[in-house]
Amino acid sequence: MGEREEVQNNNDIEIGVERRGPSSSSSSRSASPESRRITSSSLKEPLLLPHDAKRTNQTSQLAIIGANVCPIESLDYEIIENDLFKQDWRSRTKNKILQYVFFKWTLVLIIGLGTGFVAFFNNLAVENIAGFKLLFTNSLMLKDKYFQAFAAYAGCNMVLAIAAAGLCAYISPAAAGSGIPEVKAYLNGIDAHSILAPSTLFVKIFGSIFGVAAGFVVGKEGPMVHTGACIASLLGQGGSRKYGLTWKWLRYFKNDLDRRDLITCGAAAGVAAAFRAPVGGVLFALEEIASWWRSALLWRTFFTTAVVAVVLRTFIVFCRGGQCGLFGEGGLIMFDVNSVNPTYRIADLLAVIVLGMIGGIFGSLYNYLVDKVLRAYSIINERGPVFKILLAIIISVLTSCCSYGLPWLSKCIPCPASLGDQCPTVGRYGNFKRFQCPPNHYNDLASLFMTTNDDAIRNLFSSGFDKEFQLSTLIVFFAAIYCLGIITYGIAVPSGLFIPVILAGASYGRLVGTLLGSLSDLDVGFFALLGAASFLGGTMRMTVSLCVILLELTNSLLMLPLVMLVLLISKTVADCFNKGVYDQIVEMKGFPFLEAHAEPYMRNLTASDVVSGPLVTFSGVEKVANILYALKSTKHNGFPVIDEPPFSDAPQLCGLVLRSHLLVLLKGKKFTKQRKAIGSNMLRTFNAQDFDKAGSGKGVKLEDLDIKEEELEMYVDLHPIVNTSPYAVVETMSLAKAAVLFRQLGLRHMLVTPKMPGRPPVVGILTRHDFMSEHVLGLYPQFQPKK
Amino acid sequence: MGEREEVQNNNDIEIGVERRGPSSSSSSRSASPESRRITSSSLKEPLLLPHDAKRTNQTSQLAIIGANVCPIESLDYEIIENDLFKQDWRSRTKNKILQYVFFKWTLVLIIGLGTGFVAFFNNLAVENIAGFKLLFTNSLMLKDKYFQAFAAYAGCNMVLAIAAAGLCAYISPAAAGSGIPEVKAYLNGIDAHSILAPSTLFVKIFGSIFGVAAGFVVGKEGPMVHTGACIASLLGQGGSRKYGLTWKWLRYFKNDLDRRDLITCGAAAGVAAAFRAPVGGVLFALEEIASWWRSALLWRTFFTTAVVAVVLRTFIVFCRGGQCGLFGEGGLIMFDVNSVNPTYRIADLLAVIVLGMIGGIFGSLYNYLVDKVLRAYSIINERGPVFKILLAIIISVLTSCCSYGLPWLSKCIPCPASLGDQCPTVGRYGNFKRFQCPPNHYNDLASLFMTTNDDAIRNLFSSGFDKEFQLSTLIVFFAAIYCLGIITYGIAVPSGLFIPVILAGASYGRLVGTLLGSLSDLDVGFFALLGAASFLGGTMRMTVSLCVILLELTNSLLMLPLVMLVLLISKTVADCFNKGVYDQIVEMKGFPFLEAHAEPYMRNLTASDVVSGPLVTFSGVEKVANILYALKSTKHNGFPVIDEPPFSDAPQLCGLVLRSHLLVLLKGKKFTKQRKAIGSNMLRTFNAQDFDKAGSGKGVKLEDLDIKEEELEMYVDLHPIVNTSPYAVVETMSLAKAAVLFRQLGLRHMLVTPKMPGRPPVVGILTRHDFMSEHVLGLYPQFQPKK
Description:
The first copy, chain A, is of the alpha/beta class. At the A-B interface, helix 4, helix 11, helix 12, helix 20 and helix 21 of A face helix 4, helix 11, helix 12, helix 20 and helix 21 of B. Chains A, B: GO terms for molecular function: voltage-gated chloride channel activity.
C-alpha cells in the first residue's frame, strides 16, 4: 500500500491515465462542455471533486494489475512552437546540426555495442552457471546418488530463483516479466517511469541470468529487448545523475521524439542480440514494438543491429579459443537445419495447414491462460516482496520436479549403433542423455528436460534421426512445457515468452513430423521448426518478423514458403479468438495504448462528446497565485492560454502552455508587479534548453518551488512559453477522425475549438485517455459491442 | 504539341501541381491573403489571371521532362465526413463489413496470383525468345559465318527493340522506364492518370519482354513492380469499363485509401515475383515504394508475396518436365553462392570497406549521369513516336556492337582440364563460351556478353574457378555495362535498373576479389555479390530490403554481416553526393512528391505565408450559376463553404466541398427556386455510392453537365455533401508543423483558419503544391540554400 500512497501524493504525475477532472457519464453528457468552463481567475474552490478521487483510485487499481505500480505519463511528440523555441531555432548553425547528427549516430553505435556486449555477457553467464549445475547433477547421477542429484539440482535452481525474484521484488519490480509490452507501450507514448530506469536495467540483466540459469521455462529474448531499450533510454536521457553517469553532450536529445528513435533502435538491437538475427531485429521492432516508423529509422536500426551482429561475432570468435569456460557451441542460439530436403509433396502441405491450425488454437488458448494466470498472480504479488519470492520458489520447485521427475517415466532406448561415442552423452551437450539408463542406452525425455532450454530446442530441431524421440516423449514434453510456460510467466522474474513458445511448438511439430513418417520427404527437424513457427504465430501474431527471425535462426531459406504459410494460417486462426499476447498484457497492465485505428463506433461520436471538464485556462499574463493553484489542484499537463483585453481586442486563443514549462517559469521567478507583457525581456533571461524535457521522473517538481507570499499576487508573462500553434480540431469532427490526427502525430494534447464563432475560443482538450475505449464506452454504454 | 494542348483544355484536372491562382512572390507577400478573398457571389470576371496561365505552362513543362505528359491529380486519404457519409455509415451492417474484409483479401489473393502468372509468362517468353536468338547466332558462328552471325544477332535485337519501342511510343508512353518512380509517386498521393492504366499494363508486359529479349542492358524487375501495381490498380478501380472488364463487387474499394493498400500489395508482389524474394518484396515496398505504412498492410503484403512465391514455384515445378521450351534452369534468377567459406579475415573487411566506397562513388556518379542522359533524351523523345523508335534503334545497334564486338578483343583461354565436357560450351548455358575460339579454348568476355543478363550475373557470381575471368575482361565488361546502362535507361522501352546495376557491381566486385587473390579465403563469386550489393546501395540507397533481396537471391545467410556492412558504407558515401536514383527520377518528372520531413527553413515560415489566393468560397445554399462559374474558371478541387445569415447567426465555416462531389450534385439537378436548405430531402435522392471516388480519369466531367439556362438562377443545397470537419490549422502555425500534419494524414486540402476572431472563418487552403520547395523558395528566395 505504501507505493500506492506515494503515487497519490505525487501531484504532478498522472496515474494510469492522463485525463482527470470529473467525468462521470451523466455530468459530461447533460451539460455542454463550455458551460462548465472555469477560468483560473474565477477559481475559489478546489477543483478536485469526489469524482476525481474516485477516478484516481480506479485507474491506480488498473495499473496495479500486473504487479507494476508506477506513475504513468504521456509522451509528447509535438514540436512545441513557442517564442523560445523559435529564437533557439533561428540561432541554430549548420555546425550545431552536424553535431546533432554526429552525436545521434554515435549514440546508436554505443547502443549497438552495449546491447551486444550485454547479450554476450548474459549468454556467457547463463551457459557457465547452468552448465556447472547440470554437470554437478550429472556427476552425482553417475555415482547412482539419484536423490542427492535431485537435491543438488532443485537446490541450485531454488537459490538462483530466489536471487532472481529477490532482485525483482526488492530493487525493481518493473523488471519482472518480458518487458516487450512495456517497451511497446513506451513507444506508443506511455512513459511508466520505472520501466526504463537504470535500476530496471541492472535487475533485468542479472535477474534474467539467474532466472534462465534456474531452469525456469523462460527465455532471455524478451528481457534482452527490454535491456536494449533501457540502455538506449539511459543514453538518451543523458545518463543517470543518481548513479553518477552523465554526459554533457547528451543534452541534444532532450525531447521525446529523439528518445523514441533511440529506444526503437535499442529494442531492435535487443532482438538482434537475442536471436543473432540483425534483419529480424529490425523487422521485429517495426512490426511489433514501434507505433511510429519512418524511413530514416529503418536505416538507423539496421545500423544498430549490424553493430550488434559484429560485436557478437567478435566475442564468439574470441571464445572459440576456450577462454570462456563452459560457453561453447551452446551459447547464443543458432539452429542449423541446413540438411533438410527442399522438395515437398501434397501431404506436406496438408501437414503444414494442420500445424498452422493447431498453432492458432493452442496459441490463442495459451494467451487466454497466460492472461488468467497473470491476473491471479498479481493478487499474490501485490502482497509484498516476500510473497513474490515465495511464488517464485514454488514454481521453481515444481519446475525442478518436472524436469527431474518426468524423465523417469520414459523408457530407456538403446543407442543407434551408427553413433558410436556420441550416444549416450553424460556431459552437457548431445541429443542422447544417459540419465538413469544402463550403458549404451539413452533417455530421450532427459535429453529435453535435463539441459538448457536452448539445447532442448537444438535437440528438437536436430535432423538425421527420425526416431530419436518417442511419440510419448514428445507428448509429455509438450504438455509439461505448455503448462509450465503458462504458470511461469507472471512470477517476479525477468521472463521471455519466446523460448517456452518455441519449445512447445517444436515438440508438437516434431510429433506431427514423426506421425507423418514416410508420407513426407521432409526431415522431422524441419517439422519442429514449422511447429515452432505455428505456435509463435498463434501467440505473438507477427508474420514477417517471425519469418525472418526463424530463417536467420535456422540459416535456411529454402523452406521460406512453408514457414510463411504456417505463420499466416496460425495468425489467422488465432485472431478469431483473441489478441496477441503482448497486446493482451499491455491491456491488462492498464496502459492507455493508442491503437493505430479508431474503433468503428467512434464515427458516431464527435470530439465534443468525450471532452470532459472543467477546463482550466490562463490569461496571457497571469497571476502567480492562480497558476500555482491550478497546478496544485489539478493534474492537468496542458492549459490553454487565452488572451483577453487589453492584450487583444476580443478573447482569442493564444495557445497551450505545459505544466512542466510553467514549473520552470515559476522557478525562474521573472514576476512583475503590474499586469504587463514582458516577453522580449524574458527571452533574454531564459533559453530554450531550460525548458528541455527532462528524463522520466526528473525535472522541476511542484515541491521544488519556493514562492513567497508577496510573489503570489504578482504577475507572470506566459507568452514566451506558450505553444502558439497547438493542433486543434473542430468540435463537430467525429471522434474517429480526431483519433487519427491524435494517433498519427503522436500528440499529448489536442484542443477542441467551437464550430460557431462568438463562443470562447476553446471548448476543451482531448488527451490520450479520451480515446480509450473504456472511457468512451463508459460515457456511451449504448455502443458497447453486443456479446 | 497536341498532347500539351489537350492537357490545357482539360479543365477539371490539374497539371503538374495542384495549386493555381496568381502566386507571384510580390503579390502574395504584400497583401494579406484575405484582402484578396473573393466569394463566388461577387464574381464577375474570370479568375484566371495571366499569372495563372504562366504557371500552367511552367508546370506542364516540368511534367514533359521525362517524356511523360500526363495530367496529375492529388489523391485524398481524408475521410470525407459529410451527411451522406454519416447516413451511409449508420446503415452499415456487420455483414457488409465482413463482406468488405472478405473482398479485400480476395483481391489481394488475385493480385498475387496475377502478378505471379505474369512474372512467369514474362520469364518464359524472354528465355525462349532470347534463347532462340542466341542459339541461332551460335550456330552461324560454329560454321565460321561471323559476319552473318552478327547480322542475325543485331537484326534480331533491332526487330525486338523496334517492337518494344513501338508499343511504348504509340500505345502507352507512360510504360517506358522503370515504373518504380511512378508507383512511388502514386503511393505518395500523386495520380498521373495513364500511369496505372490498362494500356500501360499491356505495354509494360510485352514491352518488357521484347526489351529484355532484345539484349538491352535493362532488367525486368522495375517493370515487374509497375506491372504488379497496374494489376492492383485495375482490380482496385473495379476493372476497366473501356476494355469490358468490370466487377460489380469491386465498388467496395472506391476510395483512395483502399486503393493505396492494394497498389502497395501489387508493388510488393512485383518485387517478390521479379526476384523470387517474398520477404524482400514486402521490405522493398516498405522501404522504398510506400509513403504510408501500417501494421495491417505488412500482413497483407506478406500474404500477397507468399501467394506469388507459391505460384512461381508451381510453374517452375511444372516446367521441370521440359514443357516450357528453352525455359530451363535459366528462368527466374536465383544465384546460389552456397559454397562460400564463411570465415573472413581482416583483409576481407578492408576489401569490403573499399568495395562499399567504390560502390558509393560509382553509384552517385551513375545517378548523376542517368539524370543528365534522361534530360537529354526527353528532348529527343518529345519530338514524337518516330524519334523514340529511332533512339531505341541506335541504342540497340550500339549494344549489339558492344556485345558482339568486344569479345573479339579478349584472348582465348585454354579450358581447365578438370572440367571435361563443360568447357567450352556452345549452347545457351555454361560459363565457358567458345565464341570464335579454337576447340578446347573459351572466350571469357563472350561468356558475359553473348548471353542473357540473368546468365551473365550467374556467371559472375559463380564460385569455384577463381581465374575464370581475366582482369582485363572484367574491366572491359564493367566499363561497357556501366556506360550502356546509363545510355539505355531513358529510351522508350520498359527498363529496370536492377540488372544493369547488379551486372556492373558484380563485375567490379569480382575484379576486387581476383586482385585480392590468396589474401582472402573468400570466394571470388562472393566478392561479386558484395560488389553488386555496394553498387545497389550506391544507386538505390536502400539497406534492409536490398540486404534481404540479396540474401533471398543467393540463398545464403552466412555472409549477412558483410552484406550489411557494404550496404551501409556505400549508402553513406553516396548520400554525400546526391539522392537515390528513384527519388531523382521522381523529382525530374516533376511529380510534387511530399517528403516525409519538412525542410528546416519551413520552420521560419507560417502557414499563411504560402497561402496564395484568390480563395473561392461558396455559401451553404448556393446559386447554380456561381458554382458552375467557379468550376469553369478555376482548377480548384476543394471549396470552403461558409454559412451566412439566415442559415447561421454570423458567418461560420460549414466545411469543405470537393469539385468531384459538386459535379455529381449538379448532374443530379436537385435544384430549388428559393434559397433554402433541403438537406434531408436530398439525402433520400442520393446515396453515398453516387459520390464514391471514380477511377483515375473517370467520374463526372464538367463537359458532361447539361445545365439549362433557367436552372442557372436556381439554388442548390450543398450541406449534404460538405465535409463538415476538414482538418485545419491556424495561420500562425509554422509551415513545417503544418507540413507534418498534411503529410502524416495524406491530405489533399488543409484549411487555414485565422488567429484573431472576427475575421472570415477561412483565410486560405493549403494543398500539396504549397509545401513544394520550388513553390516556397520561389516566394521566399532568401531561404534558398547557399551553394
